[in-house]
Amino acid sequence: MTIVAVVYFSESGATQALAREVISGISTVEDVKVIECQIQPWDMFEGRFDNDEFMCLLDNTDAIVFGSPTYMGGVSAQFKAFADATSERWDSQQWRNKFSAGFTVGSCLNGDQANTIQYMATLASQQGMLWVGLDIAGGYNSVGLNRLGCQLGAVGHNPEGEVHRSDLDTAKYLGRRVAMITKACALQLQAL
Ligand SMILES: Cc1cc2nc3c(=O)[nH]c(=O)nc-3n(C[C@H](O)[C@H](O)[C@H](O)COP(=O)(O)O)c2cc1C
Predict the structure, then answer these.
(1) Fewest Cβ atoms nearer than 10 Å: which of 20, 122, 130, 192?
(2) Which residues are near ligand 1 (CB < 6 Å)?
(3) Which atom of ligand 1 is nearest to the CA of 70?
(4) Whose CA is closest to 182, among 26, 17, 45?
(5) Closest ligand 1 atom, CA of 12?
(6) CA-to-CA separations, 26 to 35, 101, 124, 161, 171, in angstroms, rounded
């Protein structure tokens, strides 16, 4: 069975709302199992992410979707601590050829969310993973998906505590896209 994990940090729930949409998009694809992995404050020890069980779960996946709020134009410290912990998989390129994608949310309409997604794509590349962006031209979707025009991943705007409906739907679309691509290619990639 194809397994897709959604790894995210969320403090006040907006990134979690996007994560739940990504998960619901993944769940629309038959024979794909989804695992929700939320980075918790108690996973941090002296500034480092330390949760072996969490990391081992991710080892056994075909794809990992990353999520973080945008903090000061980048990922949150808690997500970065998780990213730093993946360095233990880096030297052996243990996560090579897993698919990956990313989502984020900020309280500004253009609060440098794209920079957060760019970092996630860099992390994925460092791990030899394959990045899946959006195949939706911003402003050209009949139901308003990708209204913020970021094709590298799903970006949300959370002006007053609630993520815009169209951004939630975009996250769901991205989850389904990752699941479909992963399901179609995972076996061939494992053989490489
Ligand atoms: C320390 C900090 C830095 C932030 N920096 C940004 C930012 O650079 N751009 C932005 O649009 N929003 C920024 N925000 C707003 C958060 O991204 C926004 O509230 C988001 O919805 C939080 O996600 P969460 O509800 O999953 O915790 C910042 C919030 C905090 C607490």
Answers:
(1) 192
(2) 10-16, 69-73, 105-108, 111-112, 158
(3) 17
(4) 26
(5) 25
(6) 10, 12, 19, 25, 10
pLDDT digits (tens, 9 = 90+) for 55-91: 999 999 999 999 999 999 999 999 999 999 999 999 9
Query: How much distance in Å is there from the Cα of 13 to the middle of ligand 1?
Result: 11
Tens digit of each residue's pLDDT (9 = 90 or more) over 18-60: 999 999 999 999 999 999 999 999 999 999 999 999 999 999 9
Residue type for 173, please?
Answer: Y
Atom 12 of ligand 1: nearest residue by CA position = 106
Ligand 1 centroid to Cα of residue 106, in Å, is 5
User: What domains are there in the chain, each with its CATH number?
Assistant: 2-190 (3.40.50.360)
SS3 content of the chain, % helix, strand, coil (to 5): 40, 20, 40
Taking the CB of residue 125, how many other CB atoms lie within 10 A of it?
Answer: 12
Distance (angstroms) between ligand 1 centre and the Cα of 32 equals 31
